[in-house]
Amino acid sequence: MYKQENLPTVTIEDFARLFGTTVDDIAENCKELIDTMDFRYEILSGIARDKLMLTILKRIDSTDLSVSGEERKPEWERGWGENLHDFVDSGYDISKLVPKYFKKNVPVRLNREYVMPVDPDFILNYTKVFRNWIFKKYLKDVSSVYEFGCGPAIHLAFLASIYPDKKLYGLDWAKPSQEIIRLLSKHFGWQIEGRLFNFFAPDENLHLKEKSAIYTFGALEQIGRNHEAFLQFLLKESTEICINVECISELYSQDCLPDYLAIKYQKRRNYLDGYLTRLQELEATGKVQILAIHHQPFGDTYFDAYSYVVWKTKR
Ligand SMILES: C[S@@+](CC[C@H](N)C(=O)[O-])C[C@H]1O[C@@H](n2cnc3c(N)ncnc32)[C@H](O)[C@@H]1O
Fold this sequence. Notes:
- With about 325 residues, the protein is α/β, with parallel strands linked by helices.
- Helix content is about 40%, strand content about 15%.
- It has a domain at about 75-105 and about 130-315: Vaccinia Virus protein VP39 (Rossmann fold, 3-Layer(aba) Sandwich), CATH 3.40.50.150.
- The strands form two sheets. Strands 6-5-4-7-8-11-9 form a seven-stranded mixed β-sheet, sandwiched between helices.
- About 35% of the residues are buried.
- S-adenosylmethionine binds near residues 151, 217 and 218.
C-alpha cells in the first residue's frame, strides 16, 4: 500500500508549525508523547488525490448529509449513550469513551495536502498531542475549568489525570454526558461534575467560579451562526481564559483547493460560521481581548477542526 520506503513523518518542528508555536514552547513530556507514536504518512497525488476530491464533492452534494442544529440532539444522545454503555460494560475503560467519529484508516488533511497515514489511529494520536500542548500552555494556572459541549468527556478525563487539584466541569445538552461524568468522578475519584447546558439557550442560573477557564473542543462547530446567546452568556462572567478549538471558517484560504472544499463542506453541514468575526467586533468595542488566533492545517478528510482562538472577557 505504501509505495515509498522513507515516508515523511510529522516532526517536532512540524508540530510546532501546525500548532502555531515554537519547538521550545512544546513541553518535554509532550515531545516524549510524540516519540511513542507513529506519525508517518504518504501524500496523495495524481489520480488518488483527484478521486478523493471527487468523493468529497459528491459527499457535499449528497442529500443524506446531516446538518447541525436543534434536530441533531437525539443523534448526540444516542451516540454518547453508546459510549456510556461500552464504558460501563468494559468496567470503566476510558478508551471506550472515544467518539466513534474518530475514523481509522482515512485520508487526513495535513498542511493543505491530503495524506494517508500509516497508523490507523493517526487522528486520535494527533489530537492527544495537540490537547496536551494547548491545555498545558493555557490552563496550568487556573483553579477551575469548564468544557462546554464536552460530550463523552475524553478531554476532561485527560485534564483530571494531569491536574487532579483543579475543579472540572463538563457541560452538554446530551444527558448521557452527565452520566459518564458522574461515573468518572465515582470510579476515579476525580473532581469533575456534569451539568446540562444548551448553547442555544444558556442557563441563566449558571455562574462560573472565580479564576476559571472555559474551553470548547469541536463543539461550537455544531451551532452554525447561532453563537450570540453563548457569547452573551460568557460576557456576563469574568473568565481568566477562553479557548475555542474549532473549525474557524474565516481562517481558510479561498485560493487553496483543499481549503475551498472545507469551506463548502462546513457550509453544507451548517458548521460554525462568523464566530471569529463576532469576537473581533467585541474586541473592537473593548468587551474582550483576543490573545491568539491560529489556523491549524490539520483535520479529517473534510475539514480542519482544530483551529483555535484564545481570548478573555474584559471587565
Ligand atoms: C463533535 S462533539 C465534541 C465533543 C467533545 N468536545 C470532544 O471533543 O470529544 C460536539 C458536542 O457538542 C454538543 N452540542 C451540540 N450542540 C449543542 C448545544 N446546542 N448545546 C450544548 N451542547 C451541544 C454535542 O452533544 C456534542 O457533545
